[in-house]
Design goal:
This protein is α+β, with helices and mostly antiparallel strands. It has 18 helices and 25 strands. It has a four-stranded antiparallel β-sheet with strand order 3-25-24-23. The protein has a four-stranded antiparallel β-sheet with strand order 4-5-6-7, with no helix packed on it.
Length: 700
């Protein structure tokens, strides 16, 4: 081998080894500096928002449940296992403790503490089933026992766990497992009622049980109760924030003085990470002076930070034994310097985290953004982008600033990157108006060209349709079947039954798959997330029930042709199989070939009209989505109408009989899906069992 080549090879190997060493050394530091933020089903890398600073562990806590920071920065801890309230300074030095007695009894397992500006200490004395109020001097002011009210009757115990107090002195207390809401007491301890109860969500299972179940099952489902609150906090403006860990949605709420949730604003929001199994178990929340909400998930040890518009800003923390990890976090609080204190119940310590430069930038920009000061927020947002180019909210903030100053192209680029469909549509609407105002002549020329194109297409199709079928080739005959299905479906079904063009049927299904892929790829970005069930959503308070069906999708490059083919082919095949089976039992005259051909050509309206409708969405705006949704539903109902008439004509049924067979066919499709799912599950279990046996045998 040449000496020069050998020398270069040695240098290359040395460089590779050095790179591995550097990477090995640098990796721990990199992991400490970077985190992630969930967006949809993905985790986007993100600079660390908070870093571990220190911990307070010299007081000897035992299963502490609650942490509160007063106006002077002192910490109050509900040291549950030691039956006391502990007061310490920010450095961890013990300043005092409260054990009682109060009304002749010492504190027993207190789980909540709150301190007002005048130094009054409110304690949820959970083990004694009461609330105790201590004055600034440590003396007992009054005790709240189980309320004597007709609203508080039955077997529900009075077991207060958390509490806050507003400026009037009204006490808002969480009662353990109480579904009726937060308990409210006035400044003298008199029970005033319940506040901010969680609603019972819509449930398809409950609906089906009410329709088809026995009386005993209906009574059992009637006892389904709303989830109770897990914790409460209060901000400087008097809003009560609550968390819920038994619920699957709206686990964070901001309650007005009237008890109305003004944070989720009538929407149904799912907090946490979609990619996680289960839902976040928010055991506590904290709100700083900028309105940033920090929610503590005891299940994962993660702290989620949201702004007042429900945007997820930052995420940090995890379960583990490390300094920046938690064993069993139970409470969270934030001080005036915006440092976050997390109380770990399992190991009895308080861990303190300070915000990084990145977090400070995000918080500053977020606050300006929320106040509508987009121009002022642009500079910090751009710095955020410099540190993390994938931070979507920063792109939205820059887009709004650009939109406000009239830089529409820049605004649209940032809105698209952030997947902000409404912002993109606003910029597009202004750009469209500007184009029409400046190039109206060119626009009318394009309109004339399109009209001429449509006229020419209509003439060409008319020529094909006018040919006698015996002189028409395969392609011409296919076009005739397609457009005759649109204009005269009944006669066309009879012709299809007589000729039975099975090959053409499969071509039609293939064109339907192509039409679906095409529409998903070309649907205008600003209308891709137009909800097809929005009208039903507005009629129901449970909007989440009808979400997930849209005109298109945001990332055309990520569309899987195979997956979209299955979405078209599988329902069609299930319909053909189920309808043929049901009609055979019910005396239908059609053969399998007839059902297959008729069902395929029933897709003709979708194949013909869906692609041009998708192209038109590129000139529409979000405010015009109602028109496009209506047109899409027109196509869908047209296809359903043809499917029904295929059953009626091919099997020679009367209207009522065809309707019944169609409904039974849909039920049969569901049965086939259930059977397929069960077969897949059993097969997977058998394969896994065989694999485990093989591994066990190989080990032995």
């Amino acid at each position: 081998m040449d000496k020069r080549v050998t020398h270069n090879l040695k240098l290359l190997i040395a460089a590779a080894v050095a790179g591995l060493v550097v990477f090995g050394v640098a990796t721990p530091a990199f992991c400490q500096r970077f985190s992630f933020i969930p967006e949809g089903d993905e985790r986007i890398p993100c600079p660390q928002g908070y870093v571990y600073e220190r911990e307070i562990s010299t007081i000897g806590f035992s299963s502490p449940e609650d942490l509160f920071i007063d106006s002077w920065g002192n910490l109050f801890i509900a040291d549950t296992g030691n039956n006391r309230i502990v007061r310490i300074d920010p450095s961890g030095a013990l300043l005092g403790e409260i054990r009682g007695p109060a009304a002749g009894r010492m504190l027993s397992g207190p789980q909540g503490v709150f301190v007002s500006r005048d130094g009054t200490t409110y304690v949820a004395d959970t083990g004694n089933y009461r609330i105790v109020v201590f004055g600034p001097d440590g003396g007992t002011k009054f005790v709240i026992e189980r309320p004597r009210s007709y609203l508080f009757r039955g077997e529900m115990a009075f077991t207060p766990t958390k509490l806050v107090v507003d400026r009037r002195g009204f006490i808002y207390a969480v009662n353990k497992d109480d579904y009726r809401g937060i308990l409210v007491f006035d400044g003298e301890g008199k029970f005033r009622g319940f506040f901010g109860s969680n609603p019972v969500g819509f449930n398809w299972r409950a609906l089906l049980i009410r329709l088809f179940a026995t009386k005993a099952q209906k009574e059992r489902i009637a006892r389904d109760l709303p989830p109770p609150h897990s914790n409460v906090t209060i901000d400087d403006q008097g809003y009560i924030y609550s968390s819920t860990y038994y619920d699957t949605k709206n686990q964070i709420k901001k309650l007005s003085p009237a008890g109305v949730d003004v944070y989720n604003k009538g929407l149904v929001i799912r907090y946490g990470e979609r990619r996680r199994a289960g839902n976040p178990a928010f055991v506590d929340i904290a709100v700083d002076d900028q309105g940033i909400i920090s929610a503590l998930d005891a299940g994962t040890g993660q702290v989620y930070q949201y702004d007042q518009d429900r945007h997820l800003l930052l995420l940090f923390g995890t379960k583990g034994d490390g300094k920046s990890q938690f064993k069993l976090p139970s409470s969270i609080s934030v001080d005036s310097a915006r440092k976050i204190y997390v109380l770990d119940k399992d190991i009895g310590v308080i861990k303190v985290f300070r915000p990084t430069h990145f977090a400070t930038l995000v918080h500053t920009a977020s606050r300006l953004y929320y106040d509508g000061r987009y121009a002022e927020a642009e500079a910090p947002w751009r710095e955020v982008i410099r540190l993390n180019s994938n931070y979507s909210l920063a792109h939205t903030g820059i887009g709004k600033a650009a939109l406000k100053r009239g830089d529409l192209e820049t605004a649209m680029a940032h809105f698209r990157y952030a997947k902000d469909y409404i912002g993109y549509s606003s910029a597009f609407a202004k750009l469209r108006y500007r184009y029409l105002r400046e190039h109206f002549g060119s626009f009318m020329g394009w309109v004339g060209f399109l009209i001429a194109l449509l006229v020419a297409a209509r003439w060409a199709i008319g020529r094909v349709m006018a040919r006698p079928h015996e002189k028409s080739g395969w392609v011409a005959r296919f076009i005739q079947f397609t457009f005759n299905m649109i204009s005269s479906p009944f006669e066309t079904f009879l012709v299809l039954k007589a000729e039975g063009p099975v090959a053409m049927a499969f071509v039609m299904v293939g064109l339907a798959i192509a039409a679906r892929v095409f529409t998903l790829k070309v649907t205008g970005f600003q209308l891709a997330q137009a909800n097809l069930f929005e009208a039903l959503s507005r009629l129901s308070r449970y909007q989440w029930t009808f979400t997930g069906f849209y005109l298109g999708q945001a990332d055309p490059d990520e569309i899987s042709i195979a997956a979209e083919a299955v979405k078209v082919l599988l329902p069609w095949a299930l319909w053909v199989i189920a309808n043929y089976g049901v009609s055979t039992i019910h005396g239908g005259e059609g053969f399998l070939r007839d059902v297959l051909v008729g069902s395929a050509f029933s897709l003709a309206p979708y194949v013909v009209f869906a692609p041009p409708l998708a192209l038109l969405t590129n000139v529409g705006t979000w405010d015009e989505r109602g028109l496009f949704v209506t047109l899409w539903w027109g196509i869908a109902l047209w296809v359903a109408f043809l499917m029904f008439n295929q059953v009626r004509v091919m099997h020679n049924y009367e209207f009522a009989e065809a309707l019944w067979v169609s409904l039974v066919t849909i039920f049969g499709m569901l049965v086939l899906i259930g059977a397929g799912g069960l077969t897949y599950s059993l097969t997977s279990q058998m394969v896994n069992f065989a694999r485990e046996v093989a591994v066990e045998l190989s080990i032995r």
